Amino acid sequence: MKKSVASLMLWACGMSAFAQQALGPGTGIISPEINADNTVTFRYVNPKAVTVELSGDFLPAQKVEVPGRGVMEVQGKASLVEKDGVWTFTTANPLPGELYSYYFTVDGKRQLDPSNVFMNRDIATWTNIFTMSAKEGDAGHYYMNNNVPHGTLTKIWYDSENAGFDRRLTVYLPAGYEKSKEKYPVLYLLHGSGGDENAWSELGRTAQIMDNLIAEGKAKPMIVVMPNGVVRNPSAPEVNEVNMFQPTMTNSRDQDTKPMEDEFPCIKKFVESTFRVKTGQYNTAIAGLSMGGRHSFSISRRYPGTIGYVGMFSGAGSGPDNEKELAALFAAKPKLYWIGVGSADGVKVSASALRDYCNEKGYPCEYYESDGGHIWKNWRVYLTIFAQKLWK
Amino acid sequence: MKKSVASLMLWACGMSAFAQQALGPGTGIISPEINADNTVTFRYVNPKAVTVELSGDFLPAQKVEVPGRGVMEVQGKASLVEKDGVWTFTTANPLPGELYSYYFTVDGKRQLDPSNVFMNRDIATWTNIFTMSAKEGDAGHYYMNNNVPHGTLTKIWYDSENAGFDRRLTVYLPAGYEKSKEKYPVLYLLHGSGGDENAWSELGRTAQIMDNLIAEGKAKPMIVVMPNGVVRNPSAPEVNEVNMFQPTMTNSRDQDTKPMEDEFPCIKKFVESTFRVKTGQYNTAIAGLSMGGRHSFSISRRYPGTIGYVGMFSGAGSGPDNEKELAALFAAKPKLYWIGVGSADGVKVSASALRDYCNEKGYPCEYYESDGGHIWKNWRVYLTIFAQKLWK
């Protein structure tokens, strides 16, 4: 009887009518494949295609002439070569440990890799990803799910008096939170234009970075709160009450910083009354990327003496426009005022202007310049650096 | 100064080199579009394509001849029609409220809808989804993020003494859990072959179903625990310590029920020591789909007197093979022994055989037969029905 039930189950799984379940082993090929020498091979099956290209942030950048702007660097591309219907490309060199993203272009149309289930959504676009940990200390090492104690990732709703409706937060609780009676300091971590409360945990790998830094003793255990920074939106699209809400740059950003400044006390109040939190200036940090960097700038100067650590990743505000407020903020002695930006980022001008203003005024300020532009690859690195500087 | 910072930000966002951020408003067309009369229009831009087909669980099923098996019903397909490079299809009739899934086939290759950010992964395959709530009481009504209090969805790791490593759980906590001091009964909800601890919350819409049923007073507030039912796997692929772990039917199932029977006490112990839980037989329920239905069958008969409510969705065990254990289980008087199956599901034979066995022995057993086969559409409905029968 048991055997016949098992075979019936198999029959049902394999042949069921209307199967919403995707069945079978996928495409049956491996792509991407990380080779023994840390080169990576990509494969795509399509005997009918005429051209298959790969775009990826691991390929050498290409220079293109942009009318009115001169020569600019854009993401590298490579052509796949076909044999027996399978298109293949292998990187020329081993890749360093990182989180990489890529997609195919098949006969001119963007196409995800059907052999790779790992994808990230950024605004309205999905892109395949893969993670490499070539050696300890590489950026990629911190983005992997290593064999270390894991924190909890929670999606929780708070009743925002400011917004007038319930809004969703992502909260990282460090490993052991549930069983301990300890209180923890809190980092508020804000996304950029086009993002939502999922951005930092998915594109930003916050849970993996924090798990690894804490396990290796490089960061102190902390709670990380990742709110939705567009106050008129309750949440990310897949749990938005407006059905079929399609994210765009326009509907997922707020050029004005005031709504998030007004919202921040509601978020903080909810977090401090819901989780076991150490309160006070030197147990409270804020950081954000791009629009979230400007939010961090404006929230910290709006509420001087309440936030001890401020991180602005590829986004900041202006000193001269906020002279009085910045004087009050620095009079309250924040322990860290940290600016990170890429050398190829258009925001570098304003970020370095804020650094110069702080230096001129004698406000302690740390400035970190990486390679590259306005990209997640940098923001993950900035978080990894910034988190190690907290509560010390 | 502020203005120039803003324009620099825009420049950086729009033109940055190596942008990993997907920028801009996506494809600029709307697909799917739910029309005023509840028909639905699909659009796909590709001037070069020769044929574009739509496969969806809302299209009339098609009958095909399967060698050796006779005529079978398979998911319906429709052809899109091209005008000015835009391929279009509108359903002939309004669609009832439901969660629907679909994909395109472009010149013979499966393709996701680039205009729709909403997707679900099932095993290794991603499929676009959309939700309709045509009228109150429709199945789709329960799958929407309606304006009701929302529970919390948590991804938490437990140290499994049985498995010898940390494993991840998805836990739904009802709205108000964090602020109340109440204890709640627990439903353990198990996935099928190919699934993981994300399956019930993503494909199964557990949080939406529970939020809506509880808000409307149709179900009592409860905690829902969704473990990973393949004990040798620590977690879903995206947080698996084995890098680039690609899910397949084979590596994401366990034909033998014993590993999950052995694991269940570890899960229950962790849940009862971590969350505010009402314990005892009549505060404990178990249910599952397909393989998870067999797990629910075997776990409930292995630990008689500890589980008061049992749900087997499109998957069950055999009475005759478990005669003694079932006698012990029913001697301990479970309040609900519920079997749900589709009329077109191959598992119907074994499900109705278990019902007949229970009837013959005088064991109280509820049997529910829906239309359709071995599909998520049915499992969401079974959960909606089953949850309303608990703790009463």
Secondary-structure map with pairings?
The structure is a homodimer of 392-residue chains.
Chain A lengths: L1 H14 L17 E2 L5 E6 L6 E5 L5 E5 L3 E5 L2 E3 L1 E3 L2 E5 L8 E8 L2 E3 L7 E4 L2 E7 L7 H5 L8 E9 L4 E9 L12 E5 L8 H4 L3 H10 L7 E5 L30 H17 L9 E6 L1 H12 L6 E5 L9 H9 L4 E7 L5 H14 L4 E5 L5 H13 L4
Parallel strand pairs in A: 15-16, 15-17, 17-18, 18-19, 19-20
Antiparallel strand pairs in A: 1-2, 2-8, 3-6, 3-9, 4-5, 7-8, 9-10, 9-12, 11-12, 13-14, 14-16
Can you give a write-up of this model?
Two copies of one chain form a homodimer. The first copy, chain A, has 392 residues and is an alpha+beta fold. Helix content of chain A is 25%, strand content 27%. Chain A contains nine helices and 20 strands. The first copy, chain A, has helices at 2-15, 139-143, 199-202, 206-215, 258-274, 291-302, 323-331, 348-361, 376-388; strands spanning 33-34, 40-45, 52-56, 62-66, 70-74, 77-79, 81-83, 86-90, 99-106, 109-111, 119-122, 125-131, 152-160, 165-173, 186-190, 223-227, 284-289, 309-313, 336-342, 366-370. An eight-stranded mixed β-sheet of chain A has the order 13-14-16-15-17-18-19-20, with helices on both faces. In chain A, strand 13 (152-160) and strand 14 form a beta hairpin. In chain A, helix 4 runs parallel beside helix 9 and helix 5 packs across helix 6 (291-302). The longest helix of chain A has 17 residues, at 258-274. Residues 1-25 of chain A have low confidence and may be disordered. Chains A and B meet through helix 1, strand 5, strand 10, strand 11 and strand 12 of A and helix 1, strand 5, strand 10, strand 11 and strand 12 of B. Strand 13 of chain A pairs antiparallel with strand 13 of chain B.
